[in-house]
Structure formats: structure tokens, C-alpha cells
Design brief:
alpha/beta, ABC transporter transmembrane region fold, Rossmann fold, six-stranded mixed sheet, four-stranded antiparallel sheet, 21 helices, 10% strand, elongated
């Protein structure tokens, strides 16, 4: 039994999406919009810093010329100007770095909140096909990749463009002839950038995909650690599979690095070529008296401002491609279909449940339920039994709207549950699973998940109603006993008891138990059974179980087989029929004689 969290190897692998850069940028702008004034301030600081940076080589020109003219008064004046500009540049740079970091972290905070909110609203079917590691990778690695570029990169691009433009203008003002040396290299830089761009995005898309697969593999091994440690063959196979994935991750990262590495030396060579041409041609102009030595020195500084932004813009393109690949995965996740929300509020729930010709399956073309029709009266206790895979738990999945029927409908008190608000529907249904999940915290914290404002006394009353006071008090710290992630420090039986208290805390009109006592010892089960006989009065109760003691709580038993209802009736009636229920009863409940 248990809920369907299916995992298929390779099912979570993504095919490259065709989301356009324009669409990505548009969605990013929506996220950045609340920070528009901070970004405007950042841009202003960046532009002021560009101006101060452009002034510094110009002041050096006058300082060098003053030295050559032995004009120490001018040298002192321009040196003081230079120090003032440098100090301003430093202060603005410090403020800009802090503000950029602040905005970047806030944006990452917002994106993660958006994604986590989306995570809470996704259909359960999404988790059936998507490996957990993939989801974790999107909330961590992809957000980091995008966040690192979204503010710093945006401001740097503008700053580099303004620096490049400003350097060109000053260079042309100082010496049009020397400017031609620098400008002549632009086509060569553009060609290198274009060739790099052709390979970059695909390479970075693959790196995002592969790190997600590695994360997913690690998550699976941690979740299945007990199985892995028990079976030596599985351990060897897991190591082999991880080595393969890790090797593929290494290869795609090396390819991305190779793409980046092949561009950087090429740009540095062009830069060195530019400096060599500048000094050679500039030397001729100085010799001919067309420019001063100070102008040549200043020009050398501006050449750095000319080449560095070009190189950074090209290098930055790789980071942009990595961020775009991450953004594709993030926005793909944010675009996943959410649970359908109705508008109707259920009030004064009586607990009538009707399934009308319901057809549903977890995979296209493979229905699990094949036209199931079932009516459960208010206050009726119904047990659903059948072989494994008959569709018992699926009926519960659909009632809670974890999935939607392919056809047919489900009614609660005559209202189609598709029209009901999810919070309203689930507020009236208490659910106890075979293997309930507990969160990190205390026993009390986990019980209060059902009703956060419940007092400790209210919780204790429910525990006493269920006859579990002695058992709960026997825990090391009672209700304040710490619980590890998933309830690892508790037995399955203890987790089931906590789940019972949690379900009954909301006093549901509909109680669903899916193999809810399968891990209880006979003594505890008997005690809980006695309490439940009273507690189910006035409540509609659906029981999925194999144990006869649990099934006997039911007024009526529904037998499922192959996705269809094949028998209905009381325990005694079904035994007399001698059908599937009678065979299951003999198989599960009667002593087996082994003859030699």
C-alpha cells in the first residue's frame, strides 16, 4: 500500500527548452522590478565610477608632461587632483560592491521563495515523474548561477559599455591617428566573440542538466541507504552508476571550460597586439612631434579601458549563457501546472462521498481505475480490500485531489470536489498513512501541523481519547521529544500513532486510514481499536487494510480487483459468497499448514 511516488530512471531528464532570450529577460525584469530604485542607484554609482576612471589617465597625461617640463607646481596640482579622483573612485566602488551584493542576495531570496511557494502548489503527479535531486538542484545551483549574474552582471554590462564608449571618445580627442590602431582591432574581437557564442549556451545548458542528475543520484542513495548497505550488488551498481554520472558531469564541465579557455588566450593575444602597435606607432608620432609623451602614456591607460570592457563583455557572455540556461530551468519549474483550485467552501460537512464512473491512471494508456462507481453514506465505515495494484490507494489519492480523474467525478455532500477549495476539502479529511512522514522538530510540532494554533492541552485530550497517553508519555521527553528528519529516530509504529493524533486533532468528518495500523503491535492495536470504535461514530471512515481486526470495524467491505469493484457486502456476506474476498481472507488471516 502507500501513496504513489514513482521514480523512473531517466524520467526526469530534460530536453533543451526553446524559451527565447527575450522571454527570459522579460520574466527576469518582473522579478527585478521591486528593486528598480536600488538598481538605478547602482547604475548611477557605476557611471560616476566610470567618469572618475576616465579622468585618471587624463590627469596622468598632465603629470607626465609636467615632469618633462620640470613644472613641479603643475605636477603637485595634478597629483592632488589625481588623489582626490582616486579616493572618490575607491569610495564609490566600495559602496557599489556592498549594494550590488545586497540586491543580489535579496533577488536570490525572492526567487527561492517563489520557487518554494510553487513547490507547495504543484500537482503530486509532478513529483511522480521528477527526481527530487532535480528539484533541489533548481532551488540551489540554478538560483545561485542566476543570482550571481542578475545584478552584478547587469550593472557591469552597462558600466563596461559606458567605459568602452567613454574611452573611445577621449582617445579620439587625444589623437585620432592613435585611435585608429585600437579601432582596427574591433572586427577581430567581434569574430572571436561570435565563434565563442555559438558554442557557449549549449555547453552551459548541459552543465546545468548534469549537475542536477548528480544531485538526484546522491539524493536517491541517501534515501535508500539501508537498501544500499544491505545488498552488496546494489552498492557496487550504485557506485558504478554514480561514477558514470559524475564522469559525464566532468566531461561537460571540461567542454564548457575548454570553450571559455579557448577564447581567453585569443583575446589576450589581440590585446597584446594592440599594445605593441600602439607603442610602435605612438613612438613614431612622438618622434614626429605629433603627440607628447604624456599623451602616449595616457593613451596606454585608455587602451586598457578600451580592451578590458571588450574582453569582459565577451567573457561575460559565457556567464550569461550559464545564467540563461539556469533561468530556463527555473522558469520551466515556475510554469509547471499547479493543483487546480476551486472556489466552493464546504460547510456543515456530513461526509457523503460518491465516485461516479471514475477512470484514472498514473501513466497514459494504463488506467488503474476503470469506471469505478461507489457511494458512501454519511457516518458509514467502509473498508476497501483487494490485491496489490487493484487501485485501493488510488481512490484516496483522487478523493484528496492529489490527482485528477481522467473521466468521471467525485462528490462530497453532492458537490464536485473539482469545484471545492483544496484547503476546504482537505480540512475536513483526516489522513493516516502506512508510512507517515514526520518533519524535523518535536512530536508536538508534528502533531500541530494539522492545527498550528492547537494548545498543548487540546493535543493531550486527543491523545487520551485515542488511548495513547501511556505510550506518548513513554517517549524520552514526551511531546517534546525531538524528531529527526523523516522520523528516523522513531519506529514506523510510533510514527503511525503520531499520525493518528495529528489526523484526529482537526476532528475530521471524513477519516481515511491507509494500512494505518500495519506496524503496530497487537496490544497497541487493540487499545487503538477500542478507542476508534467510539471515535468513528458520526464520521465517514474509509479503511484500506489487510488485517481482519481493522476490516471488522467496517459496516461494509468493498473489494477491488483490476481497477474495478468486484464485490460488496459485510464480512460474513462476502465469506459466504466464496469469491475474491473469501480467498484473500484465507490467504491472509487463516493459519497456513506446511506439510513436508
Amino acid at each position: 500500500m502507500g501513496f504513489h511516488y514513482r521514480r523512473f530512471l531517466g524520467a526526469g531528464e530534460e530536453k533543451p527548452k526553446k524559451m527565447s532570450e527575450k522571454e527570459i529577460v522579460k520574466r527576469l525584469m518582473a522579478i527585478l522590478y521591486p528593486y528598480r530604485y536600488y538598481l538605478l542607484l547602482l547604475l548611477t554609482l557605476a557611471l560616476i565610477r566610470v567618469v572618475t576612471s576616465l579622468l585618471m589617465p587624463y590627469l596622468v597625461k598632465f603629470m607626465v608632461d609636467a615632469i618633462l617640463k620640470v613644472d613641479f607646481q603643475s605636477l603637485t596640482r595634478f597629483s592632488l587632483y589625481f588623489l582626490a579622483v582616486a579616493a572618490t573612485n575607491w569610495l564609490i566602488g566600495m559602496g557599489r560592491v556592498y549594494l550590488t551584493s545586497w540586491v543580489g542576495h535579496r533577488v536570490m531570496y525572492d526567487i527561492r521563495n517563489l520557487m518554494f511557494s510553487q513547490l507547495q502548489k504543484l500537482r503530486l503527479s509532478y513529483f511522480s515523474k521528477e527526481p527530487v535531486g532535480n528539484v533541489v538542484s533548481r532551488l540551489t545551483n540554478d538560483v545561485d548561477s542566476l543570482g550571481n549574474i542578475i545584478t552584478t552582471g547587469t550593472i557591469d554590462i552597462v558600466s563596461d559599455i559606458v567605459t568602452f564608449t567613454g574611452a573611445m571618445m577621449v582617445m579620439f580627442t587625444l589623437s585620432p591617428k592613435l585611435s585608429l590602431v585600437a579601432f582596427s582591432l574591433i572586427p577581430l574581437i567581434a569574430l572571436i566573440s561570435y565563434l565563442f557564442a555559438l558554442r557557449a549556451r549549449q555547453a552551459y545548458r548541459l552543465t546545468r542538466k548534469k549537475i542536477a542528475e548528480v544531485t538526484s543520484r546522491i539524493e536517491q542513495d541517501i534515501a535508500g541507504a539501508a537498501v544500499v548497505q544491505t545488498f552488496a550488488y546494489r552498492k557496487k551498481l550504485n557506485i558504478s552508476e554514480f561514477e558514470r554520472l559524475n564522469r559525464e558531469n566532468l566531461q561537460v564541465n571540461l567542454e564548457a571550460t575548454k570553450t571559455l579557455a579557448s577564447m581567453s588566450p585569443a583575446l589576450n593575444f589581440v590585446r597584446a597586439l594592440g599594445y605593441a602597435l600602439l607603442l610602435w606607432f605612438g613612438g613614431l608620432l612622438v618622434k614626429n612631434g605629433e603627440v607628447t609623451v604624456g599623451t602616449l602614456v595616457a593613451f596606454y591607460g585608455y587602451m586598457d579601458m578600451f580592451f578590458k570592457p571588450l574582453m569582459m563583455l565577451t567573457m561575460f557572455y559565457g556567464a550569461i549563457q550559464s545564467a540563461l540556461a539556469a533561468a530556463e530551468r527555473i522558469f520551466e519549474f515556475l510554469s509547471e501546472e499547479r493543483e487546480g483550485e476551486g472556489t466552493v467552501e464546504l460547510s456543515d460537512v456530513r461526509g457523503e462521498i460518491v465516485y461516479e464512473n471514475v477512470v484514472f491512471g498514473y501513466e497514459p494508456g494504463s488506467p488503474v481505475l476503470k469506471g469505478v462507481s461507489l457511494s458512501i453514506k454519511p457516518g458509514e465505515v467502509v473498508a476497501i480490500v483487494g490485491p496489490t495494484g487493484a487501485g485501493k490507494t488510488t481512490l484516496i489519492n483522487l478523493l484528496l485531489r492529489f490527482y485528477e480523474p481522467w473521466s468521471g467525478r467525485i462528490l462530497v455532500d453532492g458537490v464536485d470536489i473539482k469545484k471545492v477549495k483544496l484547503s476546504s476539502l482537505r480540512r475536513h479529511i483526516g489522513l493516516v498513512l502506512q508510512e507517515p512522514y514526520l518533519f524535523s522538530g518535536t512530536v508536538l510540532d508534528n502533531i500541530r501541523i494539522a492545527k498550528p494554533n492547537a494548545s498543548t492541552e487540546e493535543v493531550r485530550r486527543v491523545i487520551e481519547m485515542l488511548g495513547l497517553k501511556e505510550i506518548m508519555d513513554s517517549l524520552p521527553e514526551g511531546l517534546n521529544t525531538p524528531i529527526l528528519e523523516g522520523g528516523k529516530n522513531l519506529s514506523v509504529g510510533q510514527r503511525q500513532l503520531i499520525s493518528f493524533v495529528r489526523a484526529m486533532l482537526i476532528q475530521p468528518k471524513i477519516l481515511v486510514m491507509d494500512e494505518a495500523m500495519s506496524s503496530l503491535d497487537p496490544f497497541t492495536e487493540a487499545r487503538l481499536q477500542r478507542a476508534l470504535r467510539k471515535l468513528v461514530e458520526g464520521r465517514t471512515c474509509i479503511i484500506i487494510a489487510h488485517r481482519l481486526s481493522t476490516v471488522k470495524l467496517a459496516n461494509r467491505i468493498i473489494v477491488l480487483d483490476g481497477g474495478r469493484i468486484v464485490e460488496k457486502g459485510s464480512h460474513e456476506e462476502l465469506l459466504k459468497k466464496g469469491g475474491l474476498y473469501a480467498r484473500l481472507y484465507k490467504l491472509h488471516f487463516l493459519p497456513t499448514t506446511i506439510s513436508s
